[in-house]
Design a protein that fits this description.
Blueprint: E1 2-7, H1 21-24, H2 31-42, E2 46-51, H3 57-67, E3 71-75, H4 81-94, E4 99-103, H5 105-110, H6 113-117, E5 123-125, H7 130-141, E6 152-156, E7 159-162, E8 201-204, E9 207-208, E10 229-230, H8 233-245, E11 250-253, H9 262-274, E12 280-285, H10 292-300, E13 303-311, H11 315-320, H12 327-339, E14 343-350, H13 357-370, E15 374-379, H14 387-390, H15 392-395, E16 396-398, E17 412-414, H16 419-434, H17 437-445, H18 450-468
Helix pairs in contact: 2-7, 3-4, 8-9, 9-10, 13-16
Length: about 500
Amino acid sequence: MRCALVIPSWVPEDIFPARTAGSQLNYWQPLGTLYVGSSLKQAGHEVLFLDGAFLSHQAILDEVARFRPRWVGIYSTTFGWPGAQRTAADVKDRHPEAFVCAGGPYPVAMQDRCLSQGRGFDAAVTGEGERTVVEMLERLGRGQGLDGVRGVVFRDGGGIKVNVPRPLMANLDELPFPARELLGDAALYLPPPASYRRKPVAVMLTSRGCNRRCIFCFQLDRERKTGIRYRSVENVLEEIELCLRQGFREIKFIDDTFAEDRGRALRLAREIKRRRLDFTWFASACVNQVDREMLDAFREAGCWAVLFGVESGVQKNLNTVRKGTTLSQVRNAVGWAKAAGLAVQTTFMFGIPGETYEEALRTIAFACELSPDMASFHAITPFPGTHLYDHASEYGTLSEELTDFTYQGAAFVPHTMTRQQISELRQRAYRTFYSRPAFLLRRLLGLRRRDDLRVALGSAKALFWLWARKGVFDMSAGGGRGCQRNGSSPS
């Protein structure tokens, strides 16, 4: 069966402030969609992938018309839901015979409510999609209905039926590797500037799930009953070697808990080194899961950078978001990573429930104290399906605009702050952190390649606007949205 996997059209200014988009812009490989694509191909289906990061809305419709799929899967985040609705409706109007299915974080969180909102959709996947879509297509191919297909909500006559959830996969080694060949030009998919050393860059998950309970984090297993599901080290190494044969030069491991199993993380690093696999890599880790020995092993195996989600420089606020970490652990982890010779990237957030403006200033000071190589300052974003989203009214106010759910717009405002204060804090944080003489000197001395100079020029432009104009991060004032691609309105 012909199957089209679609990410609706979007442009950088849909997400990032116009003045800083050049220094923030990134295109991640859509791993979830590529896993579904590989499962469909393994089942014998013909698959077309259309990525709206590089295609206008009209171009997507034109490609769908040429391909004439019988099944169309449309991916959606929260902020991208309006675009997904538009894409589904236009595809259905032009190809009423096609079965149109929603997938991604927003449909998973909203379940049957997303079908009530999107007239073009026939069904939605409500969990991991790899096995669900294969079973769905088997039923459709035989002309049967979707009753009993676990993990699906679907239209049935004039109503909507909700099937029981599909259990999460226990053995991730059974999955085919993501179909990266569907990407076309893989060189287009680059993480944020200065967050990679070599290209093209592959993105990889060595596990799924998280056993932590941060109030802002979305997990399929909301009750954390399943825990972390790990792929075997051998399976991960097999995928790494495939990526290298495909021409990738760097890999970003984006697991929620890459270092939770210390022995496994060490085995993986040491095996990469033993096999002399030629690639650089990057990993995210929790500050209370690393130690100097582990970080040294990462460095010796080709890892060049590690990202820590610090979130706040005030212990009270870390406790509020249920981070399960301490400021002392943050200091230790950053210090160990630097001593191991790794670049350090950190993330912080403003708008935590109960956080005051003065406490946010302490977070900025803490970021400067840590002095990582890069720091990101976001607005806390309570995506649907998280504890903070479900209990937002207890802590503050929640935006009704889905386009605010991007880490850039203040989708949530606590009772102790204003929306304007959150945008002001973000601007002040970036301006303060990246204007420090020690940071600027380190960045200047670190210029080695043409790419380094390009990134530095983009950062300098963004820094200029952070000083020259107020309200850079005030998305509601028109600071980010409204750009058009190829004459079509953004999705």
